[in-house]
């Protein structure tokens, strides 16, 4: 089975990739640190002897950093998905015995299951984590059935 990528699918796949990136363990640590910085900077505003000025900007800077992280993650996910599967590209997926076969346009990739560390199924994309890397591979969710996902999880580990 194959499908042709359109703008709606690209937006959905980019959203799923961004959600994945923003909820990875390293990102969770970042969110905890930024939230702690925000809370501490707000509490610091009430501390006796604290001068106005830069202390008043720290909560705004913390929120700004949070927004910047979200915006840059979404923009990066959009660029990556669009580069891998531009609108109009025909995409297909086949589950082999030892490898995942992915086709996009005229490109075909045979990726051994051992290459992957895990996967996350979103609403519009299945995100495959590459072992030993921060890189991921995304394929349209509609090309992978629930049974395929269960099989992939057992093969990938």
Verbal overview:
The chain has helices spanning 7-22, 25-45, 54-84, 146-156; strands at 2-4, 90-95, 99-104, 107-112, 116-121, 125-130, 136-140. With 157 residues, it is of the alpha+beta class. The protein has two domains: 6-84; 90-156. A four-stranded antiparallel beta sheet has the order 1-2-3-4, with no helix packed on it. The longest helix is centred in the middle third of the chain and has 31 residues, at 54-84.
Features:
157 residues, 50% helix, three-stranded antiparallel β-sheet, single chain, 2 domains
Question: What's the gist of this structure?
Answer:
The chain contains 4 helices and 7 strands, in the order E-H-H-H-E-E-E-E-E-E-H. The radius of gyration is 20 Å and the shape is elongated. The chain is 50% helix and 24% strand.
């Amino acid at each position: 089975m194959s499908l042709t990528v359109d703008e709606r699918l690209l937006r959905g796949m980019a959203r799923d990739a961004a959600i994945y990136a923003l909820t990875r363990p390293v990102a969770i640590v970042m969110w905890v640190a930024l939230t702690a910085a925000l809370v501490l900077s707000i509490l610091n505003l009430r501390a006796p002897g604290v001068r106005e000025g830069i202390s008043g900007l720290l909560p705004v800077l913390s929120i700004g950093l949070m927004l910047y992280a979200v915006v840059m993650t979404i923009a990066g996910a959009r660029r990556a998905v669009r580069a891998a599967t531009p609108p109009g590209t025909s995409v297909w997926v086949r589950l082999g015995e030892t490898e995942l076969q992915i086709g996009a346009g005229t490109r075909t990739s045979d990726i051994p299951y051992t290459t992957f560390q895990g996967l996350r199924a979103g609403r519009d994309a299945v995100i495959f984590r590459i072992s030993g890397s921060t890189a991921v591979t995304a394929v349209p969710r509609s090309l992978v059935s629930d049974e395929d996902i269960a099989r992939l999880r057992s093969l990938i580990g």
